[in-house]
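Cross-check.
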Amino acid sequence: MKLDVVLGLQWGDEGKGKVVDVLTPNYRVISRFQGGPNAGHSLKFNNLSYVLHTVPSGIFRDESINIIGNGVVIDPVILAEEIESIEKENIDVKKKLLISKKAHLIIPTHRIIDAASEASKGKTKIGSTLKGIGPTYTDKIGRIGLRVGDLLDIDFKEKYNNLKKHHQRLLKQYDFEYDITEYERRWFEAIEKLREFQFIESEHLINKYLNEDVAVLAEGAQGSMLDIDFGTYPYVTSSNTVCAGACTGLGVAPGRIGEVFGIFKAYCTRVGSGPFPTELHDETGELLAEIGREFGSTTGRKRRCGWLDLVALKYAVMINGVTKLIMMKTDVLNTMETIKAAIAYKIKGVETTEFPYEHEAEIEPVYKEFKGWNCDICNIQNYDDFPAELKEYIEFIEKETGIPIWIVSVGADRKATIFRQ
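Predicted model, tokenized:
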């Protein structure tokens, strides 16, 4: 059995939570492979909405097994609160959620370092969610981090205090006041909650499932254009959000990757700072934000909006080895008279279809225009009933990327999902 992967192809917020929820009936195991509580995966069903930050998005499906992999960083306070909210829905989370011993822990001072570092950058801020993600990955690479498996050690408190003291020394370089007393109290309460769960050698278990032909789906967080290596550096996250991250974040060999489901919006959004070639600074951009309710599910920050960027999309398809595309929030474009998609960039007068290293240069998008369908598609049940203008838009994207669009989402609910045969 191969490991299938779901990931975002833009700057995050593509709708991964809904897609994983929709696909979960085809899989027994759902596993998160990177990121942390900076993720916000939104699900909607039975007229109720949920946002998951660390727990895999299959948790609400019957009989699913959900694994937090070794590549994830965990804030025990946020995870404990998330578990509590899910348990209120009569979900047996302890039965359905397993946590890798090798996943790293975000401790209170990680959050302070994150805030102090971001505050010190002034106008060069990268738009951190201030959840302590970057400093935690820094400690992981520096080989001084705390891991979930350390919670089982009798000298855990000593390890915690040593790392805390190291952080306090680092914080002396900043003019930044802080008090972690209350959050630290909540943090130690939360780790007692986590100790009630099963900590596993996730790489062994996931490979065992694959050997036994159990269907496993890997769930990515953030988006490919925020990848630490291939994204718009330095305005990126601190982990590998691309398909290769599933191998290192779960302990699965490259040859065991199966389908790679790449998710993108029918337009583009971005939260925080960083290059965004197709961003719209006009009424159309405001309209996309309003209709699409483009506010970050984790931070609440307003998202920047723009037209679909096919240069960036093709780049993400290439890096990830995408086998099937999934187009989200198509219905947000329902009222648009004209729709545009960038098919190339002009940089210093030279046209290119390759995503450049110099992404902070002045980029002029080269657009192709499409006539909008200008009708409500939210209640359509099959592809044949789509308006001709929408079909033209979809089929052009397929031709440009060379990858079939397998799913088209026409609304937030899990039922508003069109599978193309």
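The two ends are 23 Å apart (CA to CA). The chain has a mean pLDDT of 93. Passed to J.P. for a second look.
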